[in-house]
Amino acid sequence: MHRVMTPCTAQRWQLPARTLFRTQTHSRTFSSLSLITRAQDNTGSLDKDSDNNNSEDKTAVDGWERTIDGLPDYTAEPRGRAKGVEWKLRAKGRNFVDFCRIKVSGGQGGDGCVSFHREKFVAFGQPNGGNGGRGGNVIFEASSNETSLQHIPHTGSAPRGVHGKGSLMHGHAGKDLIIKVPMGTIIREVPSPEKEKDDEEELFHGSLELGETEAKDKEMSKRWVLYPRLANSLTALPDGKVNYFEEAQAWVAEEDRIVEARRAAMSKKPLLLDVNEHTEDGTQFMIGRGGGGGYGNPHFLTTQNRAPKYATRGREGQTRWLTLELKTIADAGLVGLPNAGKSTFLQAVSNAHPAIAPYPFTTLNPYIGTVDYSDSYQVKVADIPGLIRGAHMNVGLGHSFLRHVERSKVLVYVIDIAAEFGIKRKVKGVDDWTPEEDLEQDETNESGSLKSSQDEDPNAINAEYSQPFEDWKTLLDELEAYQPGLTRRPSMIIANKADVTEVAPKNLRLFQKLVHDEWAKRRVANSSSSSSSANDDYDIKIVPVSAKYKKNIVKVTSILREIVEAEKAKESAAAARKEQREREEEDEALAFKATRRNIMNNSQNE
Question: Which PANTHER family is this protein grouped with (predicted)?
Answer without folding.
Answer: DEVELOPMENTALLY REGULATED GTP-BINDING PROTEIN-RELATED, MITOCHONDRIAL RIBOSOME-ASSOCIATED GTPASE 2
